[in-house]
Amino acid sequence: MSHNQLVNAVDILLIEDNPGDVRLTREAMKEARIAVNLNVANDGLEAMAMLHQEAPYDSLPLPDLILLDLNMPRMDGREVLRLIKSDERLKHIPVVILTTSAAEKDIAQAYGMHANCYITKPVELDQFMEIVKAIEGFWLTVVKLPGNSSQ
Q1: pLDDT at 151 over 80
Q2: What is the dihedral of CA 74, 77, 83, 89, to 10 degrees?
Q3: What CATH number labels 16-141?
């Protein structure tokens, strides 16, 4: 969790159990042209505690955008997506699936549960960085996000 929250920044919740992918996402976000507060949940249970603003996350704002991995321990991304999109307080938040799975079944299921987009993580480091920058460029500069008065 970030201790120095930037004012008027876009709040992103990354739900990802792979430390390497978390590090790469942070690196790509550092090069962003806009201010981003990146908070990380290492599994679905932690993510839901953050989204429900339970202690110790009670001062954490709701995110403007969620980046969600599908395959995680304790509670996987499919269950997290189902819970987010069935919750009146959370369902408006765009959810970008960012996962290693390219299975048609996973893609169809994610869209069926109202994921806002589905991206398969590339294996190559440079390509991963480009994907994160592309997500950021599109979702944070092109798209109007709901509920963020600073945009």
Answers
A1: no
A2: 110
A3: 3.40.50.2300
